[in-house]
Give the backbone structure.
Amino acid sequence: MEATVSRAGAFDGAARMAPIGAFAAIFGAAFGAAAIEAGLSGWAAFWMSATVFAGVSQFAALEIWADPPPVLAIALVVALANLRHVVFGASLASVANALPIGRRLAALSVLSDANFADVRARIRAGSRDLGPMVGGGVLLWVAWMIGTAIGVGAGAVVDDLGRFGVDVVMAGFFTALLVGGLERPADAAPIAAAALAAVACVLGGFDGAALLVAVAAGVAVEALRPEGAA
Amino acid sequence: MIDAQTALAIAAMAIVTYATRIAGPVLMRFAPITPRIERLIDAASQSAIAALVASSLARQGPREAAAVAVAGVVMLLTRKPLAAMVAAMTVAAAWRAVL
């Protein structure tokens, strides 16, 4: 089956990511400020944000940053923090692999959490267009870069994200798409299992294992559901 | 300026992260794509997103949990993610303003 990366889809995706972009810019400012604090130069923080574009893993790298930086340890921490991309990419494979190789490799370079969740919902509804992921990803990248630059130059400009509720934008968006994807109540079973497993890991002090355990729990529950329930 | 070791660390981060982004579609070229496998991989991706939300709520408190719960309800009622996001922000901002 054919797949595309359409311009119209890209603009739609970018529009839907705009609220999340506001969050990404503020999060980026916090990263820029934290990077300077950790001893990186402004240019190092800027290039890191530009080429890595994965906030949580960048913060994780700062935790173990030193002079000189331990390259292998940093690479390992970043790989673990970004392991979820592998699952996201796999679920896009039937569309992504139908694109010519150049477009496929370029489109995947901006794969991240929010634009994945957005395009996945469209693909489930029958779309074969990765445009929304690319448009949304470029918007998030630009917001992330603006934020990083501000953070490097001026420090974390907004120290209280909570006052306007911006801190819950991402969680609200993910929740909306998870709920929106339920076709019948039983579809919630794997998601609920994953959420409970993640909470148990965090409360039990195994933060690092939360993602893997949650994915295993969700997949196990889905596997046990009767065939044809989806 | 960026010294060589810092440049190397950033390059390593960028390469590793890009590898995680392309790994899924690459690996799936070697897997038989049956409806069942597609279903399980989709469940894995939704589980990963649920885990992002749930683990952040477990680290935070009732304010964030209330905001997310309201987002879920608003989504059920309106089917509009934007409305759900705005509702979550409103709850979180009001909670902070009142308490």
In short: Chain A touches chain B through 94 residues (CB under 8 Å). The radius of gyration of chain A is 19 Å. The mean pLDDT of chain A is 93.
